[in-house]
Every structure is written in structure tokens, then in C-alpha cells.
Amino acid sequence: MKPELEQGSNSTPPVKKRTFVEWFKNRWSNDPLFSILIALIIMVILQTLTLGFDYDSFGEWFQAWSNNWLNILRNNAGIGIVALGMTFVIMTGGIDLAVGSTLVITGAFSMYLLDTGAQGILGAVGITGVPAIILTVILVMAFGYLLGSLIGVTVTKGMVPPFIATLGAMMIFRSVTQHFAQGYNTTVPTEFLQISSFKIGNYMIMPIIYWIIIAAILYYVSKRTTFGRQIIAVGSNEKAAKLSGVNVDKVKLRVYALMGLLVSIAAIIQVSRIGSMDFSNAGRGMEMDAIAAAVVGGTNMLGGRGFILGTVYGMLIIAVMNNLLNLFGVPPFLREAFKGIIVIVAVLLQRKEKNA
Amino acid sequence: MKIEMNNIRKSFGSNDVIKDVSFSVEGGEITALLGENGAGKSTLMNILGGVLQADTGSIVIDGKEVHFKTPAESLEAGIAFIHQELNLINDLPIYENMFLGREIKTKYGSLDLKKMYDQTAEMFERMNVDLDPNKMVGDLDASYKQIVEICRAMMTNASIIIMDEPTTSLTDSEIERVFKMMKTMQEHNVGIIFISHKLNEVMQICNRYLVLRDGNLVSRGNVSDVTTKDLASYMVGYDVRTESLRRHKETDEIGEEVLRVEGLTNDHHFRDISFSIKAGEIVGVTGLLGDGRSELFQAIFGANKYISGKVFFNGKEVKVKSTWQAIKEGIAYLPRNRKENGIVKDMDIFENASIVTWPMFSKHGVINTEKHRQKFDEQRNALRLKMGAMTDNITSLSGGNQQKVVLSKWLAANPRLLILDNPTQGVDVGAKEDIYDIIIKLAEENIAVVVLSSEAQEIIRVCDRSLVMYHGAIQGEVKDEEMNEHTIMNLATGGEKDVERSEHQI
């Protein structure tokens, strides 16, 4: 048996001072997120070196460095939020392939509500300006929640395997969107764009702030709430969870509904950043990126184990790597291969001593 | 064939699991390997089976030293290990299972099904097994699966077969079938190492015994020279009580009715069940495996459906549709098969102990950890739970302590009715007695306790009275002097209460 690991008591000084190597080894084998964090730090250092550290003109260098970082974070905020929901879904032992299509259908819905042209529903009933924006955000999020709930009901009451239920939803949502939004040419009111492009100081960081807030909330949910802990119980041993009074169906349903809600937030961010959405291409492959981030972050595909913080790290690792490949000038078609390698290596690293 | 294991030592990290153990087994003998959970039985057998390697010591077969690096090498040397979780593929027929990993191929490289079938049939004939090799393994009951495993071991010309708790999930008649099979093997001069917790079975089938305690071989000898009580005390290192714990309660001493069931029926598992249980009573429900008692009480707990009949809880009729509703009503159900139904292995000890009460001890969905901690600290002492840190994984505990954690999650919910389904399954002797003490203490605290068990001895020692089920119906109720193995067995096999009440013999 291993020596006990003190948890959450950093304040008590250890009797014997441990060397850094011992501390590192201990962490490496006991803290599942540690290796992920190390990997992330290494990649950030690599990226920083690649950008060329210039001591003489530190100010300019820092400007370029932070701009690059804000860009990375902004570009990945939407998918980062989706990956957080995906973590919960995977932790219950499920999967959601429909996120990309949910993104498109909720995005289209927001444009349908808001269009400044003749087609905008809210405009037609006389709601404009800020009330229209607020109403749109609420309605789109409700719509996302509803679509997620529909998937959840199919999975729980219909007992359709999540892979199949969400595969079907993936096809349906995109197809329906493409049909009804065919040649749909909208302009979104400029106030709506403020959701993403509002500047704090000189920085356009709203999407990043949303990401951080949602990650913080979900972190708390996963650690401290009944819902969060029941997710682990359901994913790890559904039978035992049910026999312990956990409402397994309700937990699963809420997880898919939450997923839909988070995707709709990502859709609002995307539409408000770009002002439009390409219904046939937006969100394609999003499910795979979200799953990859979760898996790199230590989430067990079989359910049970998963870490919100890990998924944030995982998302950042993938994002930094994309950035690095960009800086190195790796041809676009090859980049996916690197992503694939990262996912596999990450899982290999996590396969340390696992006692059955 | 004779196998000697000499001066075997094995440690995992700083934990010495096997400390200098030497013994030998011979063909034609059935040797019981006994010990509490964590005594080192599995480690020792895994070394013999080639799954693990010893740190020091040697294995000698017929005077020749051998070194097993893989299970395949051990098998090659004639040692077959039948694990508790059987290695059979349910969706393949018996004869293909018999050749898993060693398939016979035709000269074109395809499977030679005919030859495999014939050899299987031949083996069954030799071992007096009445089975159709064409049958799907998934259609077999647990004992026949065990028998298929044994025949497969025989197929590899094994001369020593290690059987790890083969009877745990078998009914009495199935156990008889497996024992008959073991006797046949003995006649074929095969040696068997029989790992079991059931001392009565050891007395019945084994010639010799080995007892491990904390990695040491503490006793060995001929089974005919000892009693089950001796064996139990060797295992735990002190005298184990075997006396009856049954209380003698007068009718006016017990409390109000807690549960009444009228005509409860479910299509497949039980029919027309009526009984009632009062507060402070300990009621046993026994019978053979498959008698429907688990399904019946799962239905009362809301985990299973019933189609007709009524359930009254505390005098008012309830329709329990879900487990969380049952918990709110004050019903608790400790399930059988702890590994599958009881523990959540991705969670630590503390979380496993608080899973039931999360919704109760929470505000706006945020769990009150402090309250759980207080409850758990109380329980921990009351249950004599042996554990490291609360944040250790549940799987770091022995079976008995795991069971206590599962029990503690129910006690935290303050149930009025506690249903215990096979509470001492896979639990060692010491923890078993602890659990009996807890059951009696809870009843004294006016909780209605139901103990489901197929071990008649357990029922007789602990319960005030017992219902005996047969094929989904209550065959009879026993109490006082009627509560003996003989009467219970009679009822459990569909017979009537015996008029002459003859004393049961061991």
C-alpha cells in the first residue's frame, strides 16, 4: 500500500522536508491532473520560445505574446464551453455527437429571432433594441436546453443508446437547419455583437470571461453538489447508484439538457463574434474536438472518472498545439494528425498504475 | 504429481503479503486453502498460476524446479486456475468455449468445429457430465458453467486445479453437482486446491487444509482431525463464537407493524406474497437461489416492478415506484453482490458512505459535507470499520470493511425498515460476527430488520423468525425450535414442515 496522500491540508508543514523529486514523483503518480498540467506547461514554454523571447524590447514582446494568447483563448472559448458539458456527458457513460448540429440549429434560431431584415420574428412583433437581445439570449438558451432534454428523454425513457440517439439528432438538427435556412441571408443587430465584442479596457475578452465563469460554476457543481457527485456514481456503477436511491434517469436527462444549454451559449458567442453562421460547415467536427479535450483532460470514456479542470487543460493543450503548428508552418492537412497523436499520447500517459 | 512451494515470499511495496510460506499438494487430494480476505490466498495462488512472480522461494514439480512467468507456462506445466469470475464467453457454444485460445484448426486454417465438438463430447462422457456440447454457455446455470470450466481444465491435461470460491453463487443442489464433479476428478488422480469461506463445505469435500493468516501459513493438517470451529479460530487467530445470537422476544415486546405486504405478485419471480414485519423484529427470508426473495424485496424497495398486490408501510398503503421514494419512506436495502450493486469504485470511502444521504443533507443541491462527516465518524466507530484515510479508494478495503461502508450509507439515512440481502457475502469470519452484532443492535433500536440469506445457519443464529420461500412463493414460516436446518431445507425444496422435527446432522 502506498503512503497516504494528504489531501487539502497544505497548511500543515510536513515534518520532514521532502525533496522536489520526491514531491514530483508523488504528484505524478497520485494526482491525475498533474501530468496533464505538466504537458500544458511544456507546450506553453515551447510556444513562448517559438515566438522568440526578446529581452530588449520586453514591452512589445509581451504585447505580441499576450495578443497571441487572447486570440487562442477567444477562438477556443465556444468549443471549450462545449467540452465542459461533454465531460459531464461522458462521465455518465454517454456521449453526445450532436453538439455541432445543435450549435447550428440554435445559432440559426438566434438569427431567426433577431434578423434586422424583414424575417426577424422579434422585430416583426415590435421588440427591438436591448430587450430583443436579452429575450433572444433567453429563448436561444431555452431552445438549447429543450433540444438537449429531447436527446436526454430519448436516451433515458426511450432507452436508445446515447451514441445512436445523438447520431440521429446530429443528422436531424443540421439537415432541418440547412433546409429552412437555405439562402438565409441575415444581418444581426450591432447590439447583439456586443455580447462577444464588448471591450474591457482595450481587450475583447468577453468569450474568455464566459468560458471562465462557466468552468468555475461547473467545477463547483462537479465537486460540491448532489447532481455533480451523482454523475460520477451513475457513470461508475449505474446499478449501485440506482440501488442507493439515485434517480439515474433524471441525472442523465439533466446532463444532456445541460449539454444543449452550453452548446446554445457557444452558438450565441459564435454568432455574436462573426455576425453570421455558415450552416453547412459551422460546428462540423466539434463533437470530436470536445471529446478529445475531455479525454486529454483525463475523462474516462467508460464513464465515472472525469475532471472539469482537466478538460480546461485538455482544451488548452489542443489549442496551444494548433497555434504551435501554425507558427511552425505545418501544412493544414497535417494538423489533424498531430491532434490525433496528442489524444493518444495523453491517454497513454494516464494509463499509469491502475489497480482493478 | 506433486507440487511443492518452498519459502515463498512476496511483497507489494512495503506490504509483505506472503511471508515465507511452504507447502505441498499432491494428485488425488482435495486441499482447502483457507484464510480471511487479505490473508494472501489469492496472491499465493496467483504465484502458482503464473499471474504473479514470487520475490524469493521456489516451485518444485515432481522434484524439478520451475519458474512461471505467465499463466500460459503454468498451464503448460499442468496447473489450471479457475478464477471466481469465470472465463467463459456466453455467446459461444460449450464446445467452442472448451477450446478458447487453443482452437483446433483444419489444414486450411479454419476452425475444426467437428473435432472440437467430438473431443468435448468425449470429455463429458469421461467425466460423467450430462451436457450437450452444442448448448450456448449463456443458457447454462452457474454450476454447469463451473463444470464447463473444470472440463476445460481437464482438457488441458491439468493435474492440479485451483478453484477460487467456486460455490459462492451456487444453490445447494448446484453445489452438490460441482462436488460430484470434484470427486470424479479426484478419482482421476487430479489434485484440487479449493479456496472457500464456507467451512461446512470444506468439512464435506476436502481431505487436507492449509490456513493462511497475514501471509503466514498458520496451520495445516487433515480435515478429519479438526472441526469448523477450529478452522475458524485458525483463520482469525482467536476463538470465534458460534453460539446462537437469537433473542427470545415475547410478542408484546415487539413494536408496531412497519411493513405489511398483501398478495404481492410479479409475473416471473414471486407470486401472492403476504406477510408483515414489526418494528424491532429480525425476520429472516431464506430459500434456494432463484427463489425470488431478492426480486421480492427489490420490488418493495422500488427497484423492481410488481403487477398486483398491496404494500403497506407504517400502516398506510404506498405505491413505491422508485428507490429514492422508498428511501424517503424510510426503507433501506443493502443489495447482494457488493461489487456489482453495492460499491462505486470511482469514489472514495467517504463518498461511498454518503451517496444515499447526498440529497437529504444538502441545501439547494449543495452537499453538506460537514454533516456527512459527523455521521460517518459516528458510524465508523459503531461499525468497527478498519480503514485508512476517508479519501482512500473504496477498493483499498477488505470485503468485510467494504460491506460496513455500504451498510453505513444506509444507516446514515435513519431507516425504519432495513433489508439486508446476503449481508455477509464475501465477508470474512470476524467481520461477519460484527455484522451480526450490528443487526441485533439495530433491532434493539426499534428498526425492523429483514435478513435475506441462503445460509440457513446465518438465519438460525440471528433471526427471530424466518420465512422460507420456494419458487417465488412463501412455503412456510419457522420460529423457535422449528428453526433448524432440517425444517428450513425441507421447506426450501418444496416440502412441508417435518412433523417429527429430527435433529439435523452435520
SSE blueprint and pairings:
The complex is a heterodimer of chains A (356) and B (506).
Chain A: H1 20-30, H2 34-51, H3 58-91, H4 99-114, H5 121-124, H6 129-156, H7 162-180, H8 190-197, H9 206-224, H10 226-236, H11 238-243, H12 248-274, H13 286-296, H14 308-328, H15 332-350
Helix pairs in contact in A: 2-14, 3-9, 3-12, 3-13, 3-14, 4-6, 4-7, 4-12, 6-7, 6-12, 8-12, 9-10, 10-12, 13-14, 13-15, 14-15
Chain B: E1 2-12, E2 15-26, E3 30-34, H1 41-48, E4 56-61, E5 64-66, H2 71-76, E6 79-82, H3 94-98, H4 113-126, H5 142-155, E7 160-164, H6 172-187, E8 191-195, H7 199-205, E9 208-213, E10 216-222, H8 228-236, E11 257-266, E12 270-278, E13 282-287, H9 293-300, E14 308-313, E15 316-318, H10 323-329, E16 331-334, H11 338-342, H12 349-354, E17 362-363, E18 366-367, H13 369-382, H14 399-411, E19 417-421, H15 429-444, E20 448-452, H16 456-462, E21 465-470, E22 473-479, H17 485-492
Parallel strand pairs in B: 3-8, 3-9, 6-7, 7-8, 13-20, 13-21, 16-19, 19-20
Antiparallel strand pairs in B: 1-2, 1-4, 4-5, 9-10, 11-12, 11-14, 14-15, 17-18, 21-22
Helix pairs in contact in B: 5-6
Organism (chain B): Ornithinibacillus halophilus
Keywords (chain B): ATP-binding, Cell membrane, Membrane, Nucleotide-binding, Repeat, Translocase, Transport
InterPro entries (chain B): AAA+_ATPase, ABC_carbohydrate_import_ATPase, ABC_transporter-like_ATP-bd, ABC_transporter-like_CS, P-loop_NTPase
Description of the structure:
Chain A: This is Ribose transport system permease protein. Chain A: One of its GO terms (cellular component) is plasma membrane. Chain A: It is found in: Cell membrane. Chain A: The chain crosses the membrane at residues 33-53, 73-90, 97-114, 120-147, 159-180, 200-221, 253-271, 306-325. Chain A: Keywords: Cell membrane, Membrane, Transmembrane, Transmembrane helix. The complex is a heterodimer of chains A (356) and B (506). Chain A has 15 helices and no strands. Chain A has 356 residues and is an all-alpha fold. Chain A has a single domain (71-350), classed as ABC transporter involved in vitamin B12 uptake, BtuC, CATH 1.10.3470. In chain A, helix 4 runs antiparallel to helix 6 (129-156), helix 4 (99-114) runs parallel beside helix 7 (162-180) and helix 14 (308-328) runs antiparallel to helix 15. Chain A starts with 19 loop residues before the first helix and ends in a 6-residue tail after the last helix. Chain B has 506 residues and is an alpha/beta fold. Chain B folds into two domains: 2-236, Rossmann fold; 255-492, Rossmann fold (3-Layer(aba) Sandwich), CATH 3.40.50.300. Chain B has 17 helices and 22 strands. In chain B, helix 5 (142-155) packs parallel to helix 6. The longest helix of chain B has 16 residues, at 172-187. The radius of gyration of chain B is 24 Å and the shape is globular. Residues 500-506 of chain B have low confidence and may be disordered. The interface between A and B is medium-sized, with 29 and 38 residues.
